Amino acid sequence: MMDIYSILDQSYAECHDIIMNHLQDDVNTLYSCILVNRRFCRIFIPILWKNPFKFVKKEKNLIEIFNTLIHCLELNDKHRLITERLINIRDLPTTSKAYFKYHSFIKEFELNPLQKGMRLWISKYITKTKMNGSQSTRRVKKSVIIINQYIGKLLFNQDNQYESINIRYTDLLSGPNTLFSICDFVNHEKSLINVNKLSLSLFHRNSTDLMPIITMKILSLQNVLSPNIQHLQIFIDTTKDHSQFTYNLINFIKFQNNLKSLLISPFCKKGDLKLYFAPFLDALKNHSNSLTFLKLKFFSISINQLLPLLISLPNLITLDFDLICEGFSNDNSIISNEILNLPTSLFKKLKHLNYSHNLPSSLFKQILLSSSDNLKSLKIGDTYYPFIKDVQQLCNLNLSHFHLVITSGLRLEDLSSILENLHHLVHLKLSSTSYSYLLEQLKRISYLGNLSQLLNSNSSALFNSSVSSASSSSSTSSSSSSSSASSISSLSSTLSALSISTTSTSASTTSSASAAIPRSLLSRNRVSSADQDRYENIIKIFSRSLPPSLKILEINFLIPESYLKILLNESLFNLQSIKLHDYGNFEDNLLRIFIDYQKRKNCFKELGIKHNKFSETCMKEAKNLFKITKNTTGIDDPFYGMFTIIIIIFFFF
């Protein structure tokens, strides 16, 4: 029988990759593994050190990592540091050799945390003397210049083979001499030969104009890396003139052999895009066969620029728009016709779409129609709700992941009508700009019911019929799925009828009716028992609109515990994970809801929360049934995963 050590051996590539890919971001498990025994330690230390800065959030941990790198220096380099009086002898690592060549395990090089850790380490370990603030700053700068040479020599030699490079220049800049330049080190080309992911970041606010030297250093790095970069992300923000930098960047994009991913933000000053757009588009056309990922972030672009850009990239699998489309109106018949005449096969391969609320609705509908067979994940604002309904009437949407951002008070019945037709949905995110979105919707629906009682007794009867049928159906949990489906649609149809009956009434009638409604009905703080019953019945109907296929639910608005319990009990899904973002501190009552749900359904695996006040007893019982995790990522993180490389340069106008 194969033992665990054999499975973890890299010669068993499939088993090794499955296990390591699952564990690579689980720092607690990795740390536990290195403490098992020496063999486990040798297996898992390289995983932890692939990118040691990825897990670091505290300054003291940055210092510890940098101290380990100092420990890895050659003995003669350590002695030079001592003789130059940069650090106290008593603080220098005294062992002659580190247990591992930790630096050689690093595969994802990140400049910013390295430089930050260096400055923190210098402040802690250099010989202490009484100096005022300016003298101390100069002392740190001088030390940075010296230690850069030793660390660069350590990290860029034949022992290191990097896969990705993240060069991020920030406000730590204090002059050309302190800039860490990879290409200054003798063996840098050997270390960069396998790099296919590049990240560059510049935050340049200070008065010194470093753009000429930065442009030169980055051009040197680009020349070494080209033409092997497959993944690229660009985000620019600086007050300095950088026209030459921009042209170099566009040429760099153009001359890669197999560019697959590009995340890009404005690479020129505001209003200058027209000067660079033609060469940029020409660069993209070189990658029409290979580019499958495109994210346009913070652009202000015209529709006449956007359409040819999209036409040039027919093989996109992921398309993420976060931009403003200038000078477009849905009433523009010429542009609308151009959108309608886009090749029907243009988005056939698209699987992931994030669509900004500032873009033409006609383009969104066209993309959705073209990609409906293959599209798996979608993120949109609620302003596009009507166009999803239009497409659902024409063809099936096979979405497995859906994120709806509610910014304009989307009606609960409209939300229900979208979700009930997503039959393959596995992961749902609902985020709202209003923390009390659900409660506001329940009050609105209750108000419509009370208003309809005064204006239209037939509509009121219809409403009461729908909620009473929901109540009766909930008491017979063994009812068929077909009857459930009919009660699902009742929320949309009934509440829509209520809205129509009230809004279609003449202005004079509505005004007089409103005058007849008691003021306490229009703005009441306390919820009557009748309203509470109605709220609960509406939640029951809404719960049944959630697809049975749903496994993961994330929300960032308040769902009171009583309604959350109804949601879990009345829905047809077998939920495995729920993440409650931006909530307050949870207590035992909430945890008890999920304990009972897991005991009843035996499907629940994870509760993600930000803060809690659970008792030790309740927490212990819950952890025997499912995981309780802390939400470390936001609800806005894309379904397609965090992009692995970044080029960022900040602009201030």
Give me the number of helical elements: 27
Major sheet: size, sense and barrel closure? 16 strands, parallel
Count all strands and give the number.
Answer: 18
Radius of gyration over C-alpha positions, nearest whole angstrom: 30 Å
User: Which fold does the CATH topology of the domain at 376-432 and 542-652 refer to?
Assistant: Leucine-rich repeat, LRR (right-handed beta-alpha superhelix)
Helix content: 40-55%
Given the C-alpha coordinates, what overall shape results?
A: globular
**Mean of residue pLDDT?**
79
Strand content: 5-15%
- Unreliable residue stretches: 456-485, 495-524, 642-653
Q: Can you identify the CATH class of the domain at 376-432 and 542-652? A: Alpha Beta
> From the helix content, strand content and strand pairing, which structural class follows?
alpha/beta
What's the CATH architecture of the domain at 376-432 and 542-652? Alpha-Beta Horseshoe
What is the name of the CATH superfamily of the domain at 376-432 and 542-652?
A: Ribonuclease Inhibitor
Report how far the terminal alpha carbons are from each other: 66 Å
